[in-house]
Amino acid sequence: MSTRTPMSTHSPSTHTPSTHSPQPKWLDAEEQHAWREYLRATRLLESALDRDLQARGLQLSEYEIISMLSEQPDRRLRMSEIAQLVVQSRSRLTHTAGRLEKRGWVRREACPSDRRGIELVLTDLGYAEIQQMAPTHVDSVRRHLLAHLSRDDILALGRAMEAISAGIRSTGVCDEVSAVVGQPA
Fold this sequence. Notes:
This protein has 185 residues and is mostly helical. It has helices spanning 29-54, 60-70, 79-86, 90-102, 124-144, 151-171, 175-178, and strands at 76-78, 106-110, 118-122.
């Protein structure tokens, strides 16, 4: 759907003033250009990063999970916390965790503090795998993202993405990603 002003507007004969909704503030040409470039670049970047990891037999979504686990002092996190961090539904995360579990890279355990919750734990084998794959991923991030930006641009991009994330989270619009009624994790 285009974000520019449409060529035609609603017909007065089909809308009454009581059902008329306000028109959005349409994007100007520069905003439209920035929006489209953002969409293209993020899709290309994710595809490039995923392709480089797939050459090693791993998907980007899988790498992200085991990488986060490897950064924890005890190499474990609650499934619900991981779902929020990687912006995945719990059901999608459960599916991804199942693939990693079949490889022996993670295991699921009951949370010690809350037996209803489940933690994902990175195994020694999984830790060894992430150590082998990390150089591939870091090189990929450098080649496909960082090499094209100045240091100031990189830092500005980080601030911009953080502001966007915080703004979206503050609206509650994405709460369904992290909440499944009646299912603690």
